[in-house]
Amino acid sequence: MNDIERIESNPRLSRAVVHNGVVWLSGIVAADCSVGIAEQTRQVLAQLEQWLERAGSCRSRILSAQLWMKDMKADFDGMNAEWGQWFAAGETPARATAQVAFDDEQIRLELMVVAAQKCDGFTQ
């Protein structure tokens, strides 16, 4: 019996992996990277919400987050403003943020999270 669920797998990666009630998500970037950091952050968080739901989780169950940014000096405050509004009080995860070079110059943010499953309303 395979107790590891891989969601949307290809030869390079799985978009999500679920094992023992924990969800690991691959990196998420904005669908439209021509926009600024606030809109890229909103797009990334909207996609994150969809992936969490598909894997049987939700934002209140996020355990840790890794954020990679193109330019922390220019974008850190703008990203944090959107991030802070997205979470309910007391539900922010452990987090690390780093500056990186992306292969696409328009990408300003990539996010990867680990979350627990079984949100209210889910029966998985």
Describe the protein's architecture and organization:
There is one protein chain. This protein has 124 residues and is an alpha+beta fold. Helix content is 27%, strand content 31%. It has a 6-stranded mixed β-sheet with strand order 1-2-3-6-4-5, covered by helices on one side. Helix 1 (37-54) packs across helix 2 (72-86). The protein starts with a strand and ends in an 8-residue tail after the last strand.
Topology summary:
Elements lengths: L3 E6 L4 E6 L2 E4 L11 H18 L7 E8 L2 H15 L7 E6 L9 E8 L8
Parallel strand pairs: 4-5
Antiparallel strand pairs: 1-2, 2-3, 3-6, 4-6
Helix pairs in contact: 1-2
Salient structural properties:
single chain; 124 residues; alpha+beta; 60s Ribosomal Protein L30, Chain: A; 6 strands
Q: Could you say what the CATH topology is called?
A: 60s Ribosomal Protein L30, Chain: A
Query: Rg from C-alpha positions?
Result: 15 Å
> Whole-number average pLDDT?
94
> Which range does the strand content fall in?
25-35%
Give helix % range.
Answer: 25-40%
Secondary structure category: alpha+beta
CATH homologous superfamily assignment: RutC-like
The count of helical stretches stands at 2
User: What form results from the Cα inertia axes?
Assistant: globular
CATH first level: which class? Alpha Beta
Number of domains: 1
Strand order of the largest sheet: 1-2-3-6-4-5
Annotated CATH architecture? 2-Layer Sandwich
What is the N-to-C order of secondary-structure elements (H for helix, E for strand)? EEEHEHEE
For the largest beta-sheet, the strand count, sense and barrel status come to:
6 strands, mixed
Q: Distance N terminus to C terminus?
A: 17 Å
How many strands in all?
6
**Uncertain segments:** none
